[in-house]
């Protein structure tokens, strides 16, 4: 059932909002006329939607940012404080309904990126962002259904699905729910069916049940296998509810492991996640997206499942400042429950960028490095609360602290060539501060349009220190930094690396795509850098430089490698082992030399072109 909504900016108080005037708005959505409002109220009216076969009417809200209260016909029904968690409300009996939903800006530190200046105000409007609908159901019914797959780390053929079903009933009930789990599409393996007893005198009860999965078919990232999934159906009387899930294990032990096998991670950060961005990540040869410091919309999480893209899901907590660890622990547990059904769910970050940038503008000289080390030492961070929050997550690996070197981050954000120094300073940063295994952000900013003005999250002063020119020069510089850092991290065999970020949220930014999805120069550069098998130069400066094959696949490959330096062409045959780094030859290069490298296994050809810097 579709609804017509009206909205108004309101002053938060304890009473139901009663604005002087309502304006028509689109819900779900983020009405930009209310940008900057502390609270926004939404109203809709409708007649009883049930027909003679229906007993229950449910209001379904998803993405209610950030703290929400819901009234029906003047009575407060519920409040909610975790917008990533769907809200399903049973409506009371009535012939006519007037629903009022008030959404407020965060009342605590858990507004995430939307509570910072990293996103434009129109993306942060308090509202119902993802879904708003009415459902009608018979009696009794399964009003909510969630699943949590479990696969043994020791034996991936040992798999179960933990089922949780919320039952609504108007009369005392003694019955059984029929649960069926069947492979989706052409997935091999048979279906399973069980029955779980539900006996209650309450109007609402929750039934839990564990189903064994015979001969499980596992879900894999797109560069490693198929995205096998299962549909779980729960049937009670005339009512049926279903949810789609997948089976896999995820762990971290000197690298991410999926189903017990090493998966070198090549990721991108999403600042304003959309379904289209997941497909774009695949086009960039990424196998992971990090949704930074915010909840992931359900359709984006499903797109990750569909495309075989791992999902790094952050707790919505960003920027310096203390926070209530007990509140964080509760939110983390709810976040884990919300996303556990998605086989793509692979990691959680807790506190994003917990200290202010301390090295902006420093160069690469001896004194600048001393200043960097001094400022890093002074920028200490007590990670005890973040680690307490991380302990609430037990299904996937956690990275409690995501931030710059010097604060002992679990996942480092490294910006040589942008915030400080040159891109070639990456090895010094990694060795000096013992970082570089897990890199949750690297890259540089660039213009997306000739006259960007002030864009959220874009440092104009930083940009102007590095670039003297327009869009072309800006994007060329960004591409150079992305290539240098990405290739250096891969050469070091960094097991997890994420570029910041995939797409801009304004007319300029760290994105490899403009806000409308138009490619910047760096997008194709990253796609080349992220090829699972690639051939690179060890350094782009004059001197003796190695030709290195990077092979991030679990099986060996027989490759033909070819290189061309200023028109002089040579080639060689090489066999490279699983996850290998092999030096093919060494070139003596001078400033201005043009070098083209290529490698093929007989089916796929990868290339890289370089011009040696002055």
UniProtKB/TrEMBL annotation:
SUPFAM superfamilies: (Trans)glycosidases, beta-Galactosidase/glucuronidase domain, Galactose-binding domain-like
Xref: Gene3D superfamilies: Galactose-binding domain-like (2.60.120.260), Glycosidases (3.20.20.80), Immunoglobulins (2.60.40.10)
Keyword Translocase set for record: no
Any matching Pfam family: Glyco_hydro_2
Domain annotation Glycoside hydrolase family 2 immunoglobulin-like beta-sandwich: ranges: 143-248
GO biological process, one term: carbohydrate metabolic process
Gene Ontology molecular function: any one: hydrolase activity, hydrolyzing O-glycosyl compounds
Keywords: Glycosidase, Hydrolase
Location of the region described as Disordered in the Swiss-Prot/TrEMBL record: 1-25
Entry keyword annotation includes Hydrolase: yes
This protein's name: Hydrolase
Organism: Haloarcula rubripromontorii
